[in-house]
Amino acid sequence: MKLTIATLFSAIFVATLEFVMMIPVGALIAEETGLGIENAPLLISIYPMFALISALLTAPFSDYFGRKPILIALISGLIISCLLSMLATTPSHILILRAFAGMVAGIIMPNAIAYAGDVSHDSKRASVVTWSLLAIPMASSFGVPFMAWFVEITSWQTGFGFIALLSLLPLGLALGLQPISTGVTQFNARKLYSELFSLWQHTATRWILIIEFLLVLVVYCVVPQLGVWLELNFLMSSIEIGMCFLMAGFGAIFGNLIASHFVRRGARLFPIAFGSGLLMLVTVIATANWLPMAFISTLLFFMMMGDASRYPAVQVMLTEIVPISLRGRLLLMNMIVTNMAMATGGIVSSLLTHQHDQRLVGMELVGYLIVGLSLLIFMALSRLSRRQYYIVSH
Protein backbone atom coordinates (compact mmCIF):
# COMPACT_ATOMS: atom_id res chain seq x y z
CA MET A 1 0.00 0.00 0.00
CA LYS A 2 2.90 2.37 0.72
CA LEU A 3 4.24 1.88 -2.82
CA THR A 4 0.79 2.64 -4.22
CA ILE A 5 0.57 5.86 -2.21
CA ALA A 6 4.10 6.83 -3.31
CA THR A 7 3.17 6.27 -6.96
CA LEU A 8 -0.09 8.22 -6.80
CA PHE A 9 1.48 10.97 -4.68
CA SER A 10 4.40 11.48 -7.09
CA ALA A 11 2.13 11.44 -10.16
CA ILE A 12 -0.19 14.08 -8.69
CA PHE A 13 2.84 16.06 -7.46
CA VAL A 14 4.49 16.47 -10.87
CA ALA A 15 1.17 17.18 -12.59
CA THR A 16 0.37 19.87 -10.03
CA LEU A 17 3.87 21.32 -10.15
CA GLU A 18 3.78 21.66 -13.94
CA PHE A 19 0.52 23.59 -13.66
CA VAL A 20 1.17 25.85 -10.67
CA MET A 21 4.64 26.78 -11.97
CA MET A 22 2.77 29.13 -14.31
CA ILE A 23 1.72 31.30 -11.36
CA PRO A 24 5.17 32.71 -10.47
CA VAL A 25 6.81 32.42 -13.91
CA GLY A 26 3.84 32.82 -16.26
CA ALA A 27 4.49 36.56 -16.67
CA LEU A 28 8.11 35.86 -17.65
CA ILE A 29 7.11 33.20 -20.18
CA ALA A 30 4.43 35.46 -21.65
CA GLU A 31 6.89 38.33 -22.01
CA GLU A 32 9.69 36.28 -23.59
CA THR A 33 7.42 34.46 -26.07
CA GLY A 34 5.71 37.69 -27.15
CA LEU A 35 2.35 36.83 -25.60
CA GLY A 36 2.46 39.94 -23.41
CA ILE A 37 2.35 40.18 -19.63
CA GLU A 38 -1.29 41.30 -19.74
CA ASN A 39 -2.17 37.96 -21.35
CA ALA A 40 -0.17 35.85 -18.88
CA PRO A 41 -3.37 34.52 -17.19
CA LEU A 42 -4.15 32.73 -20.47
CA LEU A 43 -1.27 30.36 -19.73
CA ILE A 44 -3.28 29.22 -16.70
CA SER A 45 -6.86 29.46 -17.96
CA ILE A 46 -6.27 27.60 -21.27
CA TYR A 47 -5.05 24.53 -19.34
CA PRO A 48 -8.38 23.60 -17.69
CA MET A 49 -10.31 24.21 -20.90
CA PHE A 50 -8.43 21.44 -22.65
CA ALA A 51 -8.30 19.22 -19.56
CA LEU A 52 -12.09 19.32 -19.70
CA ILE A 53 -12.09 18.17 -23.33
CA SER A 54 -9.61 15.42 -22.53
CA ALA A 55 -11.65 14.19 -19.57
CA LEU A 56 -14.74 13.99 -21.73
CA LEU A 57 -12.92 12.08 -24.49
CA THR A 58 -11.09 9.63 -22.22
CA ALA A 59 -13.78 8.96 -19.59
CA PRO A 60 -14.94 5.60 -21.06
CA PHE A 61 -11.37 4.37 -21.51
CA SER A 62 -10.53 4.69 -17.79
CA ASP A 63 -13.20 2.16 -16.80
CA TYR A 64 -12.56 -0.13 -19.79
CA PHE A 65 -8.75 -0.33 -19.84
CA GLY A 66 -8.25 0.30 -16.12
CA ARG A 67 -6.31 3.07 -14.40
CA LYS A 68 -2.76 1.72 -14.76
CA PRO A 69 -2.33 2.01 -18.57
CA ILE A 70 -4.14 5.35 -18.58
CA LEU A 71 -1.81 6.73 -15.88
CA ILE A 72 1.27 5.52 -17.77
CA ALA A 73 0.05 7.18 -20.98
CA LEU A 74 -0.80 10.46 -19.23
CA ILE A 75 2.54 10.72 -17.41
CA SER A 76 4.35 9.98 -20.68
CA GLY A 77 2.32 12.76 -22.31
CA LEU A 78 3.33 15.14 -19.53
CA ILE A 79 7.00 14.43 -20.22
CA ILE A 80 6.54 15.05 -23.94
CA SER A 81 4.66 18.28 -23.22
CA CYS A 82 7.47 19.60 -21.03
CA LEU A 83 10.17 18.73 -23.56
CA LEU A 84 8.28 20.46 -26.37
CA SER A 85 7.61 23.51 -24.17
CA MET A 86 11.35 24.01 -23.91
CA LEU A 87 11.32 24.78 -27.66
CA ALA A 88 8.41 27.26 -27.63
CA THR A 89 9.34 30.68 -29.02
CA THR A 90 6.04 32.23 -30.14
CA PRO A 91 2.66 32.95 -28.48
CA SER A 92 0.90 30.31 -30.59
CA HIS A 93 3.50 27.66 -29.72
CA ILE A 94 3.30 28.18 -25.97
CA LEU A 95 -0.51 28.36 -25.95
CA ILE A 96 -0.81 25.14 -27.98
CA LEU A 97 1.58 23.39 -25.62
CA ARG A 98 -0.27 24.66 -22.54
CA ALA A 99 -3.43 23.22 -24.11
CA PHE A 100 -1.67 19.89 -24.70
CA ALA A 101 -0.40 19.90 -21.11
CA GLY A 102 -3.97 20.34 -19.93
CA MET A 103 -5.09 17.35 -22.01
CA VAL A 104 -2.52 15.01 -20.43
CA ALA A 105 -1.43 16.35 -17.03
CA GLY A 106 -4.83 17.84 -16.32
CA ILE A 107 -6.50 14.45 -15.88
CA ILE A 108 -3.74 12.61 -14.00
CA MET A 109 -5.28 13.40 -10.61
CA PRO A 110 -8.78 11.93 -11.18
CA ASN A 111 -7.30 8.74 -12.62
CA ALA A 112 -4.93 8.47 -9.68
CA ILE A 113 -7.76 8.95 -7.17
CA ALA A 114 -9.89 6.40 -9.05
CA TYR A 115 -7.03 3.91 -8.70
CA ALA A 116 -6.82 4.73 -4.98
CA GLY A 117 -10.51 3.90 -4.67
CA ASP A 118 -10.04 0.66 -6.61
CA VAL A 119 -7.05 -0.70 -4.73
CA SER A 120 -8.10 0.09 -1.16
CA HIS A 121 -10.85 -1.38 1.01
CA ASP A 122 -13.44 0.77 2.74
CA SER A 123 -11.40 1.08 5.95
CA LYS A 124 -8.26 2.24 4.09
CA ARG A 125 -9.77 4.21 1.22
CA ALA A 126 -9.95 7.56 3.02
CA SER A 127 -6.31 7.25 4.11
CA VAL A 128 -5.01 6.37 0.62
CA VAL A 129 -7.00 9.17 -1.01
CA THR A 130 -6.07 11.85 1.54
CA TRP A 131 -2.36 10.96 1.60
CA SER A 132 -2.26 10.99 -2.21
CA LEU A 133 -4.01 14.38 -2.31
CA LEU A 134 -1.35 15.80 0.03
CA ALA A 135 0.80 16.05 -3.12
CA ILE A 136 -1.18 19.10 -4.26
CA PRO A 137 -0.30 21.43 -1.35
CA MET A 138 3.20 19.91 -1.19
CA ALA A 139 3.79 20.88 -4.82
CA SER A 140 2.53 24.39 -4.09
CA SER A 141 4.51 24.90 -0.90
CA PHE A 142 7.90 23.50 -1.87
CA GLY A 143 7.75 23.06 -5.64
CA VAL A 144 6.54 26.52 -6.64
CA PRO A 145 9.14 28.57 -4.71
CA PHE A 146 11.85 26.16 -5.82
CA MET A 147 10.78 26.47 -9.47
CA ALA A 148 10.59 30.26 -9.14
CA TRP A 149 14.15 30.30 -7.82
CA PHE A 150 15.33 27.70 -10.34
CA VAL A 151 13.87 29.62 -13.29
CA GLU A 152 15.34 32.86 -11.94
CA ILE A 153 18.90 31.49 -11.98
CA THR A 154 18.53 29.41 -15.17
CA SER A 155 15.58 29.89 -17.55
CA TRP A 156 11.95 28.89 -17.84
CA GLN A 157 12.94 26.42 -20.57
CA THR A 158 15.22 24.64 -18.10
CA GLY A 159 12.32 24.60 -15.64
CA PHE A 160 10.23 22.56 -18.05
CA GLY A 161 13.20 20.24 -18.61
CA PHE A 162 13.54 19.68 -14.87
CA ILE A 163 9.86 18.72 -14.53
CA ALA A 164 10.23 16.29 -17.45
CA LEU A 165 13.16 14.68 -15.65
CA LEU A 166 11.26 14.57 -12.35
CA SER A 167 8.29 12.92 -14.08
CA LEU A 168 10.38 9.86 -14.84
CA LEU A 169 9.96 8.84 -11.16
CA PRO A 170 6.14 8.41 -11.20
CA LEU A 171 6.38 6.89 -14.67
CA GLY A 172 8.74 4.20 -13.40
CA LEU A 173 6.61 3.60 -10.31
CA ALA A 174 3.41 3.43 -12.38
CA LEU A 175 4.89 0.65 -14.49
CA GLY A 176 5.01 -1.44 -11.32
CA LEU A 177 1.40 -0.82 -10.23
CA GLN A 178 -0.90 -3.78 -9.84
CA PRO A 179 -3.42 -3.82 -12.71
CA ILE A 180 -6.98 -3.89 -11.38
CA SER A 181 -9.98 -5.02 -13.41
CA THR A 182 -12.97 -2.71 -13.27
CA GLY A 183 -15.41 -5.35 -14.50
CA VAL A 184 -16.12 -3.53 -17.79
CA THR A 185 -15.41 -6.24 -20.37
CA GLN A 186 -16.97 -4.77 -23.52
CA PHE A 187 -16.18 -1.38 -25.04
CA ASN A 188 -19.50 0.09 -26.06
CA ALA A 189 -18.89 3.82 -26.34
CA ARG A 190 -22.58 4.69 -26.48
CA LYS A 191 -23.37 2.67 -23.35
CA LEU A 192 -20.33 3.98 -21.47
CA TYR A 193 -21.13 7.60 -22.29
CA SER A 194 -24.80 7.05 -21.41
CA GLU A 195 -23.77 5.77 -17.99
CA LEU A 196 -21.38 8.71 -17.64
CA PHE A 197 -24.08 11.36 -18.12
CA SER A 198 -26.68 9.36 -16.18
CA LEU A 199 -24.59 10.05 -13.07
CA TRP A 200 -26.34 13.43 -12.99
CA GLN A 201 -29.70 11.72 -12.53
CA HIS A 202 -28.86 10.65 -8.99
CA THR A 203 -29.71 13.54 -6.70
CA ALA A 204 -26.85 13.14 -4.24
CA THR A 205 -24.25 12.71 -7.00
CA ARG A 206 -25.58 15.83 -8.68
CA TRP A 207 -25.28 17.87 -5.48
CA ILE A 208 -21.72 16.68 -4.84
CA LEU A 209 -20.70 17.69 -8.36
CA ILE A 210 -22.44 21.07 -7.97
CA ILE A 211 -20.58 21.63 -4.71
CA GLU A 212 -17.28 20.71 -6.39
CA PHE A 213 -18.00 23.20 -9.19
CA LEU A 214 -18.61 26.00 -6.68
CA LEU A 215 -15.54 25.11 -4.59
CA VAL A 216 -13.23 25.32 -7.60
CA LEU A 217 -14.96 28.36 -9.08
CA VAL A 218 -14.36 30.29 -5.86
CA VAL A 219 -10.61 29.76 -5.78
CA TYR A 220 -10.11 30.12 -9.54
CA CYS A 221 -11.70 33.53 -9.50
CA VAL A 222 -8.46 34.47 -7.69
CA VAL A 223 -5.70 32.08 -8.79
CA PRO A 224 -5.23 33.18 -12.43
CA GLN A 225 -4.61 36.77 -11.29
CA LEU A 226 -2.43 36.04 -8.25
CA GLY A 227 0.95 36.20 -9.99
CA VAL A 228 0.17 39.44 -11.84
CA TRP A 229 -1.51 40.92 -8.72
CA LEU A 230 1.53 40.26 -6.54
CA GLU A 231 3.93 41.49 -9.20
CA LEU A 232 2.12 44.73 -10.06
CA ASN A 233 0.39 45.74 -6.82
CA PHE A 234 3.06 44.50 -4.40
CA LEU A 235 6.10 44.95 -6.70
CA MET A 236 7.30 41.39 -6.08
CA SER A 237 9.93 39.54 -8.10
CA SER A 238 9.49 35.92 -9.19
CA ILE A 239 11.46 34.75 -6.15
CA GLU A 240 9.36 36.88 -3.77
CA ILE A 241 6.18 35.54 -5.34
CA GLY A 242 7.59 32.05 -4.87
CA MET A 243 8.21 32.75 -1.19
CA CYS A 244 4.63 33.95 -0.82
CA PHE A 245 3.49 30.68 -2.31
CA LEU A 246 5.77 28.87 0.11
CA MET A 247 3.74 30.36 2.94
CA ALA A 248 0.52 29.61 1.07
CA GLY A 249 1.69 26.04 0.51
CA PHE A 250 2.32 25.55 4.21
CA GLY A 251 -1.24 26.74 4.80
CA ALA A 252 -2.51 24.26 2.21
CA ILE A 253 -0.59 21.40 3.84
CA PHE A 254 -1.99 22.35 7.23
CA GLY A 255 -5.51 22.58 5.80
CA ASN A 256 -5.16 19.21 4.07
CA LEU A 257 -3.95 17.54 7.27
CA ILE A 258 -6.80 19.04 9.31
CA ALA A 259 -9.36 17.88 6.74
CA SER A 260 -7.76 14.43 6.51
CA HIS A 261 -8.00 14.06 10.28
CA PHE A 262 -11.76 14.63 10.20
CA VAL A 263 -12.35 12.66 6.99
CA ARG A 264 -10.60 9.55 8.32
CA ARG A 265 -12.96 9.73 11.29
CA GLY A 266 -16.06 9.83 9.12
CA ALA A 267 -16.65 13.57 8.70
CA ARG A 268 -17.56 14.68 5.19
CA LEU A 269 -19.46 17.98 5.09
CA PHE A 270 -17.86 19.78 8.06
CA PRO A 271 -14.37 20.17 6.47
CA ILE A 272 -15.98 21.62 3.32
CA ALA A 273 -18.01 24.15 5.31
CA PHE A 274 -15.06 25.12 7.51
CA GLY A 275 -12.69 25.62 4.58
CA SER A 276 -15.23 27.57 2.54
CA GLY A 277 -15.93 29.96 5.40
CA LEU A 278 -12.23 30.57 6.08
CA LEU A 279 -11.43 31.09 2.40
CA MET A 280 -14.31 33.54 1.99
CA LEU A 281 -13.31 35.63 5.00
CA VAL A 282 -9.60 35.82 4.22
CA THR A 283 -10.08 36.52 0.51
CA VAL A 284 -12.33 39.49 1.24
CA ILE A 285 -9.77 40.86 3.73
CA ALA A 286 -6.91 40.44 1.22
CA THR A 287 -8.63 41.82 -1.87
CA ALA A 288 -10.27 44.75 -0.06
CA ASN A 289 -6.88 45.78 1.43
CA TRP A 290 -8.26 45.80 4.97
CA LEU A 291 -4.78 44.95 6.31
CA PRO A 292 -1.36 46.42 5.41
CA MET A 293 0.54 44.87 2.51
CA ALA A 294 3.01 43.29 4.95
CA PHE A 295 0.30 40.78 5.88
CA ILE A 296 -0.25 39.46 2.35
CA SER A 297 1.82 36.28 2.85
CA THR A 298 -0.08 35.53 6.09
CA LEU A 299 -3.38 36.05 4.30
CA LEU A 300 -2.29 33.71 1.51
CA PHE A 301 -1.42 31.12 4.19
CA PHE A 302 -4.98 31.14 5.57
CA MET A 303 -6.52 31.46 2.11
CA MET A 304 -4.85 28.28 0.90
CA MET A 305 -5.47 26.58 4.25
CA GLY A 306 -9.19 27.11 3.72
CA ASP A 307 -9.02 26.02 0.10
CA ALA A 308 -7.09 22.79 0.75
CA SER A 309 -9.26 21.71 3.67
CA ARG A 310 -12.30 21.39 1.38
CA TYR A 311 -11.19 18.82 -1.20
CA PRO A 312 -10.30 15.58 0.65
CA ALA A 313 -13.90 15.07 1.79
CA VAL A 314 -15.26 15.59 -1.74
CA GLN A 315 -12.77 13.18 -3.32
CA VAL A 316 -13.44 10.49 -0.71
CA MET A 317 -17.20 10.84 -1.21
CA LEU A 318 -16.74 10.42 -4.95
CA THR A 319 -14.81 7.15 -4.46
CA GLU A 320 -17.49 5.87 -2.06
CA ILE A 321 -20.59 6.72 -4.00
CA VAL A 322 -20.39 4.38 -7.02
CA PRO A 323 -19.08 0.86 -7.77
CA ILE A 324 -15.68 0.27 -9.36
CA SER A 325 -17.17 -0.08 -12.85
CA LEU A 326 -18.32 3.57 -12.72
CA ARG A 327 -15.64 5.07 -10.49
CA GLY A 328 -13.31 6.19 -13.27
CA ARG A 329 -16.09 7.93 -15.17
CA LEU A 330 -17.39 9.65 -12.03
CA LEU A 331 -13.92 10.95 -11.15
CA LEU A 332 -13.47 12.15 -14.72
CA MET A 333 -16.93 13.73 -14.69
CA ASN A 334 -15.76 15.47 -11.56
CA MET A 335 -12.67 16.62 -13.47
CA ILE A 336 -14.91 17.89 -16.28
CA VAL A 337 -16.89 19.87 -13.70
CA THR A 338 -13.67 21.04 -12.05
CA ASN A 339 -12.13 22.29 -15.26
CA MET A 340 -15.36 23.99 -16.30
CA ALA A 341 -15.15 25.83 -12.99
CA MET A 342 -11.46 26.65 -13.48
CA ALA A 343 -12.08 28.02 -16.96
CA THR A 344 -15.14 29.95 -15.80
CA GLY A 345 -13.21 31.40 -12.87
CA GLY A 346 -10.39 32.50 -15.16
CA ILE A 347 -12.81 34.19 -17.55
CA VAL A 348 -14.77 35.89 -14.78
CA SER A 349 -11.65 37.18 -13.03
CA SER A 350 -10.32 38.52 -16.35
CA LEU A 351 -13.60 40.39 -16.91
CA LEU A 352 -13.57 41.89 -13.41
CA THR A 353 -9.92 42.99 -13.39
CA HIS A 354 -7.74 45.16 -15.61
CA GLN A 355 -4.40 46.94 -15.51
CA HIS A 356 -4.33 50.67 -14.81
CA ASP A 357 -1.24 52.74 -14.02
CA GLN A 358 0.87 49.59 -13.61
CA ARG A 359 -1.57 48.14 -11.07
CA LEU A 360 -4.16 45.38 -11.25
CA VAL A 361 -7.56 46.93 -10.51
CA GLY A 362 -10.76 45.08 -9.62
CA MET A 363 -9.58 42.42 -7.16
CA GLU A 364 -12.00 43.77 -4.54
CA LEU A 365 -14.87 42.89 -6.90
CA VAL A 366 -13.50 39.35 -7.09
CA GLY A 367 -13.58 39.21 -3.29
CA TYR A 368 -17.24 40.25 -3.13
CA LEU A 369 -18.13 37.70 -5.81
CA ILE A 370 -16.52 35.00 -3.68
CA VAL A 371 -18.81 35.94 -0.79
CA GLY A 372 -21.85 35.28 -2.97
CA LEU A 373 -20.47 31.99 -4.30
CA SER A 374 -19.59 30.84 -0.78
CA LEU A 375 -23.16 31.42 0.35
CA LEU A 376 -24.29 29.14 -2.48
CA ILE A 377 -21.85 26.47 -1.20
CA PHE A 378 -23.38 26.63 2.27
CA MET A 379 -26.86 26.27 0.77
CA ALA A 380 -25.79 23.24 -1.28
CA LEU A 381 -24.16 21.63 1.78
CA SER A 382 -27.41 22.15 3.68
CA ARG A 383 -29.34 20.35 0.93
CA LEU A 384 -26.86 17.48 0.82
CA SER A 385 -26.89 17.08 4.61
CA ARG A 386 -30.59 16.18 4.44
CA ARG A 387 -29.90 13.25 2.11
CA GLN A 388 -28.08 9.92 2.34
CA TYR A 389 -25.44 10.41 -0.33
CA TYR A 390 -24.09 6.85 -0.59
CA ILE A 391 -25.10 4.57 -3.47
CA VAL A 392 -22.61 1.85 -2.61
CA SER A 393 -19.47 1.65 -0.50
CA HIS A 394 -17.27 -0.89 -2.23
UniProtKB/TrEMBL annotation:
Subcellular compartments: Cell membrane
Molecular function GO terms recorded: transmembrane transporter activity
Record-annotated membrane-spanning stretches: 40-58, 70-89, 95-116, 128-150, 156-177, 207-228, 234-257, 269-288, 330-353, 365-384
Transport found in the keyword field: no
Pfam families reported for this sequence: MFS_1
Keyword presence, Transmembrane helix: yes
Entry keywords, A to Z: Cell membrane, Membrane, Transmembrane, Transmembrane helix
Membrane-protein topology: Multi-pass membrane protein
InterPro entries: MFS, MFS_dom, MFS_Efflux_Transporters, MFS_trans_sf, Sugar_transporter_CS
Major facilitator superfamily (MFS) profile domain sequence ranges: 4-390
GO cellular component: plasma membrane
Protein name from the UniProt record: Major facilitator superfamily (MFS) profile domain-containing protein
UniProt organism field: Veronia nyctiphanis
